[in-house]
């Protein structure tokens, strides 16, 4: 369990995290999402005692990181996958880490198998690909068999097979009852991996929601209708909450009625339909919309596009 309460971090005049409160529960993967510079890494560093909050509190399994007598058994983390001694083999890297915390050699062998590094464990970690480095970072995080696992952008730069592997691993760790908190700036990836989402922007909480709820809200209720009788159908689709727009000939975009209702009205009036499609905004679009104002370094949008986006005729 992770509990952040009114967490704030300032670096001089820069506020990286501001009054951030959330709870991460065991048993599900929780995604920590936000655009670049939103404060995800800073929050994770405070959870791990690597940064001191300016104010507020960060607890992992009921205590601050520093108050745990054996923190590696409580929380395993990967913040910087490449923070390893490149001259050492993966096996020796993990063995050295284990030795400092009284973890037996057998556990080192266990995590090497768990992350699929068995064949290369004796090779120098410096020769590892990005994916192998990520696996080694995750092996280090899991070494102490921790109840809570915190990973900062673990899928960054991985190939599809590596992404699928991490996704399945995180789900299985959560199914064992662990607390899994994983950051990303990719909504589409998190939607496939996480069950719950904490979304931040400019250091502040924007949303604390389940993936299912986020997906439901992201789905717009517009239905695209293609018909040779657009004028006739349009006249029949009236109602106080119904809006019909048309951007191209023979195509109507209808809100306020679902596809079944539109299909029935069309049938009643003998209108031929070529297409009747509910439209869904992509999760990535919904995420970008939600965090639009919180993006720190926005690309300049040409004036004409801004006008169109804001509904101004140009
Ligand atoms: N040590 C520091 N000194 C000054 N500013 C910092 C420091 N660390 C982070 N910041 C600033 O705080 C803000 C939050 O940074 P942070 O790295 O936590 O964001 P993030 O969400 O992890 O972003 P990214 O996805 O780019 O890693 C940024 O504006 C960053 O420049």
From TrEMBL:
Coiled coil feature spans: none
Highest taxon listed in the record's lineage: Bacteria
Domain ABC transporter: 2-227
Keyword ATP-binding tagged: yes
Record key words, sorted: ATP-binding, Nucleotide-binding, Transport
Cited Pfam families: ABC_tran
Protein name: ABC transporter ATP-binding protein
Species assigned in the record: Streptantibioticus parmotrematis
Lineage, opening ranks: Bacteria, Bacillati, Actinomycetota, Actinomycetes, Kitasatosporales
């Amino acid at each position: 369990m992770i509990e952040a309460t009114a967490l704030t971090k300032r670096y001089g005049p820069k506020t990286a995290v501001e009054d951030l409160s959330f709870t991460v529960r065991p048993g599900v993967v929780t995604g920590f999402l936000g655009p670049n510079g939103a404060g995800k890494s800073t929050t994770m560093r405070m959870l791990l005692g690597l940064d001191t909050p300016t104010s507020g509190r960060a607890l992992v399994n009921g205590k601050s990181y520093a108050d745990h007598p054996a923190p590696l058994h409580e929380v395993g983390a990967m913040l910087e996958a490449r923070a390893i001694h490149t001259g050492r083999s993966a096996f020796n890297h993990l063995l050295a880490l284990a030795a400092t915390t009284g973890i037996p050699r057998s556990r080192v062998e266990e995590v090497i198998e768990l992350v699929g590094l068995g064949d290369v464990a004796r090779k120098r970690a410096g020769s590892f690909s990005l994916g192998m480095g990520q696996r080694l970072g995750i092996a280090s995080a899991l070494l102490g068999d921790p109840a809570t696992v915190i990973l900062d952008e673990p899928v960054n730069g991985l190939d599809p097979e590596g992404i699928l592997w991490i996704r399945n691993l995180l789900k299985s760790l959560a199914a064992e009852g662990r607390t899994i908190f994983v950051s990303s700036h990719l909504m589409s990836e998190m939607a496939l991996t996480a069950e719950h989402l904490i979304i931040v922007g400019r250091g502040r909480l924007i949303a604390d929601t389940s993936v299912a709820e986020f997906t439901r809200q992201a789905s717009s209720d517009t239905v695209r209708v293609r018909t040779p009788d657009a004028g006739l159908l349009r006249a029949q689709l009236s109602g106080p909450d119904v809006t019909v727009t048309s951007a191209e000939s023979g195509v109507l975009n209808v809100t306020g009625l679902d596809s079944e209702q539109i299909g029935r009205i069309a049938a009643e009036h003998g209108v031929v339909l070529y297409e009747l499609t509910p439209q869904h905004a992509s999760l990535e679009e919904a995420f970008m919309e939600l965090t639009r104002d919180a993006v720190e370094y926005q690309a300049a949008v040409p004036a004409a596009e801004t006008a169109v986006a804001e509904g101004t005729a140009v």
